[in-house]
């Protein structure tokens, strides 16, 4: 029998077909979990599901729009009939297409369809997956539910109003779930993710923008999908068994410093005190 820390566990990763979700699927599998890759993009889900079997685990790809109650209910039934249990749910799916980001703007210019879609996928989707997956977790009185949130759910910014509000709600949801089901063995936590673009996403962001964001990190570099997936695997594992109802910040210190830090650093450098 495998001694990997997630051996025999069954993990669902929503939005697992691309980006951080795909990396989470790979890392959970490398630690012994059987992985269900759920995505609206069925080809991507299938590709990731096939690739994780290289770790010697089983996998299942499910095409599912997480904003649809019918589809989520059906997805969880497929997982239950294939594996008989659910131990880990990572609510990672979010609508982040270029078109969505261009319409989810500041409040006066907000396209209400983009607002509705952000709430439907990012928030309602996470609620629906939790609703149906936790019912299965309760049968074994154990489970870890994880939510992918963002600094934009904590701090104001110029645009992405719907995205930000959906992510703010994802910091409340684990507290509700932890309070409601903690005594029955269910833990729930969020990860507040800093900028951790997949390799192929760097090119889609202007270098000036990346420089501004990098300057505001307290680490030498931006994050990587692997760094985020390692935090998710920790929250999924028994090593985090005393952590519930909280948001773990994995953002390279982006949200930890004074708003004036970058300007101060530049000023000190100009004054010849770069050793600060
Ligand atoms: N990458 C980052 O730097 C970063 C920073 C902060 C937060 N996050 C959060 O991490 C998560 C993953 O981000 P990413 O950058 O990998 O995004 P991504 O766009 O690369 O991946 C999102 C995945 O969700 C899927 N998806 C979209 N709508 C769906 C739906 N209705 N039903 C099912 N699946 C759907 C997409 O097909 C895609 O595979 C998101 O929740 C995002 O808000 C990411």
TrEMBL record:
<dbReference type="Pfam" id="PF13561">
    <property type="entry name" value="adh_short_C2"/>
</dbReference>
<dbReference type="InterPro" id="IPR020904">
    <property type="entry name" value="Sc_DH/Rdtase_CS"/>
</dbReference>
<dbReference type="InterPro" id="IPR002347">
    <property type="entry name" value="SDR_fam"/>
</dbReference>
<protein>
    <submittedName>
        <fullName>NAD(P)-dependent dehydrogenase, short-chain alcohol dehydrogenase family</fullName>
    </submittedName>
</protein>
<dbReference type="InterPro" id="IPR036291">
    <property type="entry name" value="NAD(P)-bd_dom_sf"/>
</dbReference>
<comment type="similarity">
    <text>Belongs to the short-chain dehydrogenases/reductases (SDR) family.</text>
</comment>
